[in-house]
Amino acid sequence: MFEQLSPRTLATPQEGVxxxxxxQMAQEFRLEADYRDRFEAYCQWYYRISxxxxxxxxxxxxxxxxxxxxxxxxxxxx
Length: 78
Fold this sequence. Notes:
Blueprint: H1 13-62, H2 66-74
């Protein structure tokens, strides 16, 4: 795994520093890409749930008002 860092392959200490900097940048890039992928998946999930909730709300609004009907039966004077 660390063969690239062995003294046989790196001619100067500066090359070792450059290699570590490059490795750090690659790791940060992978973390950022993973974060963006997970955020995109969350946004898609949220959008789907939002549409589902809107559809359920529309369906509930068209349902008869059972509680109102029941309360009218209890209080016939209204």
